[in-house]
């Protein structure tokens, strides 16, 4: 330090840290050239032993912070939102409580829109994104359809015009569905601008069952067949508000806009877990209704559609790919649930219902600790 520097009297050369006051720009052997932009700090004499201590202490501090965060989380996790989707790929209905049946919430994904070739319609196709703007809901024994600039249409839930063979997404073979008739078809075609679209529904005696997703590699957790509605893979999908908050923090750090939970189309949204902690659960109960947490849900391009503009973009899949991608390109958000064996009939799940973890999946728990304990 040249004369005039207020740090000169106490400064000692150090082989470990070579930092100096911004007024000093003297280049000396063994030191970096310092400029006026250098931050004002004292040159510290740090013993080598301190670095060894830091190497030992750092992991302990990380673990302590992780344990403290677990200790400071809410007393229990609970359901904070529940959703039913009467028509697959159309708008959701938020409910305060729902009846859980072996194949899903009562009324969930019992209908789909089918094109003139007998294939399912999905907003994954750009020309079918208007399905999101169809708002169905149940009123008594009626299915009521609403959309902007369209008259309301009220249909009997059990209306049957014909039995037809249809392709259903993720079903290994075509299924027999019930066509709801020409009036429903004309209304849907006007609302969605999908030529020849038909409304088709699942018969009460449907024998569709859950099948293993080879890309995820998790066996169906029941010894017998597990029934399912027209949902892609499982009767229920659970997500957490904490995981969405973590994903949005990562999006914002990359200069991207946050996304809402609508993008992921869950049935049950829970709060009170740590980010991604839902991965670790093997069995759980909500309001006493028991479920297997079967497999993580691999996300597709449907999550990239802005529900207001109906425009596709790269997010959130691009960001999920940076930290949630597994083998076979599965970018996961949420857990598929299957009702536990031995549970007969129906149970009621309500917003505010307590989530109890009955058993952890040790392999997934170890992976979660390895990946996220430092957050």
| SS class | alpha+beta
> Total helix count?
5
Spatial shape: globular
Order of helices and strands: HEEEEEEEEEEHEEHEEEHEEEH
Kindly report the average pLDDT value: 86
Question: Could you explain the architecture of this structure?
Answer:
There is one protein chain. The protein is an alpha+beta fold. The chain contains 5 helices and 18 strands. The strands form 4 sheets. A 7-stranded mixed beta barrel has the order 1-13-12-16-15-14-18. A 4-stranded antiparallel sheet has the order 5-11-10-9. Strands 4-3-17 form a 3-stranded antiparallel sheet, with no helix packed on it. The two termini are 41 Å apart.
Describe the structure concisely.
The chain is 18% helix and 25% strand. By secondary structure, it is of the alpha+beta class.
């Amino acid at each position: 330090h040249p004369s005039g520097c207020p740090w000169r009297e106490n400064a000692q050369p150090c082989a470990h840290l070579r930092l100096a006051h911004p007024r000093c720009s003297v280049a000396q052997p063994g030191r970096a050239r310092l400029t006026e932009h250098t931050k004002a700090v004292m040159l510290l004499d740090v013993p080598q032993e301190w670095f060894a201590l830091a190497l030992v202490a750092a992991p302990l501090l990380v673990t302590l912070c992780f344990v403290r965060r677990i200790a400071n989380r809410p007393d229990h996790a609970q359901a904070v939102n529940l959703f039913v989707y009467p028509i697959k790929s159309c708008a959701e209905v938020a409910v305060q409580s729902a009846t859980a049946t072996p194949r899903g919430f009562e009324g969930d994904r019992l209908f789909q829109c089918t094109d003139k070739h007998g294939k399912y319609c999905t907003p994954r196709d750009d020309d079918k994104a208007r399905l999101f703007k169809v708002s169905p809901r149940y009123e008594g024994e009626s299915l009521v359809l609403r959309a902007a600039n369209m008259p309301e249409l009220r249909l009997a839930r059990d209306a049957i015009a014909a039995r037809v063979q249809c392709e259903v997404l993720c079903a290994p073979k075509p299924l027999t569905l019930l066509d709801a008739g020409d009036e429903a078809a004309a209304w849907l075609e006007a609302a969605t601008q999908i030529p020849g679209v038909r409304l088709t529904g699942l018969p009460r005696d449907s024998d569709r069952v859950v099948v293993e997703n080879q890309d995820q590699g998790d066996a169906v957790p029941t010894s017998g067949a597990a029934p399912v509605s027209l949902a892609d893979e499982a009767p229920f999908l659970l997500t957490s508000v904490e995981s969405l908050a973590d994903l949005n923090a990562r999006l914002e750090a990359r200069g991207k806009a946050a996304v809402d939970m609508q993008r992921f189309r869950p049935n049950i949204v829970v709060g009170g877990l740590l980010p991604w902690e839902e991965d670790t659960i093997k069995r759980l109960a909500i309001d006493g209704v028991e479920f297997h947490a079967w497999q993580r849900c691999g996300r597709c391009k449907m999550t990239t559609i802005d529900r207001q503009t109906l425009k596709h973009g790269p997010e959130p899949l691009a960001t999920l790919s940076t930290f949630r991608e597994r083998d076979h390109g599965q970018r996961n958000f949420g857990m598929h649930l299957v009702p536990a064996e031995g549970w007969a009939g129906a149970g009621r799940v309500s917003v505010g219902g307590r989530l109890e973890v009955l058993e952890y999946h040790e392999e997934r728990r170890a992976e979660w600790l390895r990946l996220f304990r430092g957050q």
